[in-house]
Specification:
Length: about 200
């Protein structure tokens, strides 16, 4: 495969291949604020460890997906998850998605840092041409975050995904291309205090 599971460390977080060993820490984040997985098809009414284990097993079994745990360097505890998916070696493109963070980590540098590391790996190690991102069209917080980091809005895919609860989701699509990466990299690096 063109993209493989890797471990990437930044200043605040480490991205490492997601395993069931991360489930207890991730479940603790979800149980505190079950609405954080509202757009991932996990119903907030069921915060049981059994429901979360099923969600994790389903996530880990998805073909063509490389899931990562987002782990805080200072505590060694997970802050959330993210993934590479829709990996297209021939077209040198992939998607960054299935990202969610515990409420305490939202609005911090955790999300921009993990996006910076994943895009830098995609563009500078894998030699990607395009990195796409998509979110539930209802998720305005996620859409705003993608625009803030410099991704370009491409449009809405209507009735694009059937969620586990049967909801027909519209998806908002964004992307960064290899020629845009230097500008996006500089923007993210400035926010994070990195040297581009």
């Amino acid at each position: 495969m063109w993209a493989e599971p890797v471990t990437i460390a930044g200043k605040t977080v480490r991205l490492e291949p997601l395993t069931m060993e991360h489930a207890p820490g991730l479940h603790a984040l979800y149980a505190l604020n079950p609405d954080i997985l509202l757009y991932h098809g996990l119903k907030p009414a069921d915060t049981s460890s059994e429901a979360f284990t099923t969600y994790m097993e389903r996530s880990l079994a998805m073909p063509g997906r490389i899931p990562f745990a987002i782990v805080m360097l200072d505590t060694g505890l997970p802050a959330g998850t993210t993934s590479y998916l829709d990996i297209k070696p021939t077209d040198r493109g992939l998607e960054i998605g299935y990202t969610w963070l515990g409420k305490a980590f939202q609005g911090t540098q955790v999300n921009p840092e993990n996006k910076y590391m994943l895009m830098r790996h995609a563009f500078e190690t894998l030699d990607a041409i395009r990195v796409q991102l998509k979110t539930d069209a209802r998720n305005m917080q996620s859409r705003h975050a993608m625009l803030k980091m410099g991704a370009k809005f491409e449009g809405i895919l209507r009735k694009h995904v059937v969620l586990p609860d049967g909801y027909l989701r519209d998806s908002a699509m964004f992307s960064v291309t290899y020629d845009e990466w230097p500008t996006v990299k500089s923007t993210l690096a400035a926010r994070l205090g990195y040297t581009p």
